[in-house]
């Protein structure tokens, strides 16, 4: 790992630790989201992963699917449509259904600040409006829970780009995976040890998934 990579990860860890330690009312978007967006916006790895995902989305078949996917990952003001006009009574009804069907654990009610209702419906901007918005851009979102894998700002696009690459060579039958990824222009996020990724590089699925 290069010095720049270590510095970036350390900065990300400090921001996340500070946000976690000073967590306040988690029923509202936190002030650390803007810091995460700023940090991820300056990260070459995060931005290369985002460009890779945009390129992949541009090849989607079907104009509606392509348009909505690109809007979701590139538009910071994208509408969170499934939350549009959702009343408190609607949320409670949905939560009751999830509880009845055993899809959430009632014991978890005490693990979320604000209870299960907040866990199922995390805070968004312009809540209850016709166009609720995400509390931070797609490109700066973490890829996992606090201290989980890719949990730093921008971990989501890095995680998604990592997971997207193997789909090009996954087997079409139930047999074991034996293929390789050849002649693929890997984004810098897939490069190892500070070395730039190169075309015509052969990588197995295992080698991709074990890279950090």
What does this structure look like?
This protein has eight helices and two strands, in the order H-H-H-H-H-H-H-E-E-H. It has a two-stranded antiparallel ribbon with strand order 1-2. It has a domain at 83-130. Helix 3 packs antiparallel against helix 4 (63-74). The chain is globular and about 40 Å long. The protein has helices spanning 3-21, 32-41, 44-58, 63-74, 88-100, 116-120, 155-164, 205-209, and strands at residues 180-181, 203-204. It is mainly α. The protein is 42% helix and 2% strand.
Work out the strand percent: under 5%
Shape summary = globular
The low-pLDDT segments are 1-23, 176-186, 188-212
Radius of gyration: 19 Å
Order of helices and strands: HHHHHHHEEH
- Average pLDDT, rounded to a whole number, is 74
Q: Report how far apart the termini are.
A: 9 Å
User: Major sheet: size, sense and barrel closure?
Assistant: 2 strands, antiparallel
By secondary-structure content and strand pairing, the structural class works out as mainly alpha
């Amino acid at each position: 790992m290069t010095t720049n990579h270590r510095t970036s990860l350390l900065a990300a860890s400090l921001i996340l630790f500070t946000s976690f330690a000073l967590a306040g009312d988690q029923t509202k978007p936190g002030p650390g989201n803007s810091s995460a967006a700023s940090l991820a916006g300056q990260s070459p790895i995060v931005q290369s992963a985002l460009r890779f995902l945009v390129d992949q989305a541009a090849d989607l078949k079907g104009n509606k699917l392509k348009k909505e996917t690109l809007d979701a990952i590139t538009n910071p003001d994208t509408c969170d449509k499934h939350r549009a006009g959702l009343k408190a009574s609607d949320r409670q009804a949905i939560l009751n259904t999830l509880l009845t069907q055993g899809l959430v654990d009632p014991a978890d009610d005490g693990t979320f600040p604000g209870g299960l209702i907040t866990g199922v419906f995390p805070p968004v901007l312009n809540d209850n409006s016709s166009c609720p918005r995400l509390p931070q851009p797609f490109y700066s979102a973490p890829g996992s829970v606090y201290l989980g894998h890719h949990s730093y700002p921008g971990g989501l696009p890095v995680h998604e780009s990592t997971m997207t690459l193997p789909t090009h060579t996954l087997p079409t039958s139930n047999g074991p995976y034996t293929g390789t990824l050849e002649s693929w222009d890997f984004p810098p996020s897939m490069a190892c040890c500070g070395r730039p990724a190169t075309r015509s590089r052969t990588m197995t699925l295992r080698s991709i998934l074990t890279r950090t």
